[in-house]
Amino acid sequence: MMHEVILNTVPFSFRVTTNSTLVINNLQRVYGSANLNTAPTENDFAHYSVSLLLQRKVGRPWKQQARFKCDDLEPFLPMDADKSYAMLEWGLNWVIAAHEVSHVIVHAGVLAKDNKAILLPAHPGSGKSTTSCAFMKHGWRLLSDELALITPNTLTVTPFVRPVCLKNASVDIVSEWLPEQAKSDIAPNTHKGDVAHLAPTEISWREKGCTASLSAVVLPSYRADTYCEIQPLTHRQAFNQIYEHCFNIGILGAQGFSTLAGIADKVIAYHITFNEADEIVSFIEETLAIAT
Fold this sequence. Notes:
Blueprint: E1 3-9, E2 12-18, H1 21-31, E3 36-37, E4 48-57, E5 60-70, E6 79-80, H2 84-99, E7 104-113, E8 116-121, H3 128-137, E9 141-144, E10 147-150, E11 156-158, E12 164-167, H4 169-177, E13 187-190, E14 193-198, H5 202-206, E15 212-222, E16 228-232, H6 235-244, H7 249-252, H8 254-266, E17 268-274, H9 277-287
Parallel strand pairs: 2-4, 8-15, 15-17
Antiparallel strand pairs: 1-2, 1-3, 4-5, 5-6, 7-8, 7-9, 7-10, 10-11, 11-15, 12-14, 13-14, 16-17
């Protein structure tokens, strides 16, 4: 059965067409009715139109595979049907990273408290998403787990609130921290391991239209044998790290460069190696003089 819904994720909306029951069930579970129009008309606006369709696998017709498309562009190879919801979430990330030019986009988590935001740029497997969830556990609101939308030549971050992508052992760890948050079915054996998407906290949804100002850059790096090791970064080091994770610097050119340079010059920055994410939260709250 074919379904069509509009996913309203400020500042973008997506018209999603799918024949996957797994996708529809997880969208309803993780986003909730407030962010999902399950009966859109052709007149209802959406910024982007995407599809996630299940089709019989060539050469193995008894097995289904998922294919993601945006305006007939197909950025990924097909995946097994049990990975279809994870594929949709990754596809939505690709759509914005590939098309959005009104913001400087950095691959990073962003969280805020008292209007002070922290940027968590990091490579896959560094513990970025687990760190984001540790901040949410302590009352910080999530602006994004993947895509920081920064207004050019400012410190202002626009929320793009969507589920947090958790991998392998972090799924169970974070579920204990935030037991009330809905999570998707697990997508097994992806290129990232076993993956589940966790719903943002209530305050994150409630303030999804509220910008925040960057106050710190934190490069998290999980290492099992290190409790919490904090290394301040120079302006140049901070710039290099943000630049490395910027998706659209090549398109924005000088405007993007000046934006990243301004962030590196104006905010504090640290590389924190850890095996206990709560310690990062305590250190940042103390450093930024945020009430706990």
